[in-house]
Structure formats: structure tokens, C-alpha cells
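Quick one, C-alpha cells below. Sequence please?
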């Protein structure tokens, strides 16, 4: 397994599952974080995620330059855990970046990485149709990115209620 894509709903256990899979692999562990702390609640969430990782982990912040972070940090014997693509998509949209071009760059970075990459994302397409244009654009971009990464990944796991289900 070179690329693992872990997808699930909010609070489904997907990040915990992805971290356990990464920690079970041999090699150096690199956590590539896409979250940005725009408020105290998000800062607390980021702090809790950091506390869940022990000293084996090195953290790289990549709220926008995710493809570049993967290229710069991927190596044989080094496991990358990217958490999460959904926040990255949100960052791109809110910053008015070209989401399609960034998604293509991410796919290239993931498929050419010389070491294992585990990517985490939310499944956002199971709910109701959002009532505003920005939310619909976000849902559409996130769904298309998830399809693109799932197609490119060697393995895809859906996590729901803390239980993993292998899709690919």
C-alpha cells in the first residue's frame, strides 16, 4: 500500500483510524496539517489533535501548499499522514484559489510520492443540499476531490461510528 484514503463523516473516527494505520507502519512519521485556527474552538481542536500524537511525529503546516508539502516531505521509509483534505478545500475556496488546479497538483503529488501517503477527508455528500451557493460550491469541490483521490489511491477505507469498511 502506497496511498491510503480514509474517508468518513464528522467525528466518525477517521483521523484516529488513519493515525493508527500510520503508526503501525515502519519509518519516520510526518503529520501534514491543513487546519487553521481562526477561533478559540478550532485552536482547541488543533491542540487536542497534537496531544494525540507522540514524540515520533513531526508536524508540517500546509493550509494551502499541500501538494508542495507532500513533494518536499515524501521519501522512502517516511509515512505521511495528511489531515484533512476537506479543510484544505475550504482554505482554497475561502482564499479564492483555483481549486481544480490545486486538486490536480495534489493528485500528481500523491501518485508520484516515493513513500506511503495516508489522506483523510470528510464525506460531505450524504446530507441535504446546502441552502447557499458557497456551501454548494464547497460540497461539489470536496466531493469531486474525494472521487479523484479515491480513484488514485491504492486503498480506500470508509470509517463510520469508529468502524472501518474497506471500499478499495
Amino acid at each position: 500500500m502506497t496511498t491510503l484514503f480514509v474517508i468518513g463523516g464528522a467525528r466518525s473516527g477517521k483521523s484516529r483510524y488513519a493515525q493508527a494505520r500510520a503508526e503501525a507502519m515502519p519509518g519516520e512519521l510526518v503529520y501534514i496539517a491543513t487546519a487553521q485556527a481562526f477561533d478559540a474552538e478550532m485552536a482547541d481542536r488543533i491542540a487536542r489533535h497534537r496531544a494525540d500524537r507522540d514524540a515520533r511525529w513531526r508536524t508540517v503546516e500546509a493550509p494551502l501548499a499541500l501538494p508542495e508539502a507532500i513533494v518536499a516531505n515524501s521519501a522512502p521509509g517516511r509515512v505521511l499522514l495528511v489531515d484533512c483534505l476537506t479543510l484544505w478545500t475550504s482554505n482554497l475556496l475561502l482564499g479564492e484559489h483555483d481549486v481544480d488546479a490545486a486538486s490536480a497538483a495534489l493528485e500528481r503529488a500523491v501518485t508520484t510520492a516515493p513513500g506511503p501517503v495516508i489522506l483523510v477527508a470528510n464525506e460531505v455528500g450524504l446530507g441535504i443540499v446546502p441552502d447557499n451557493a458557497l456551501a454548494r460550491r464547497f460540497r461539489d469541490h470536496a466531493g469531486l476531490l474525494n472521487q479523484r483521490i479515491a480513484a488514485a489511491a491504492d486503498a480506500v477505507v470508509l470509517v463510520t461510528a469508529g468502524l472501518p469498511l474497506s471500499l478499495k
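The mean pLDDT is 94. The beta strands are 3-8, 28-33, 57-61, 78-83, 117-122, 155-160, 163-166.
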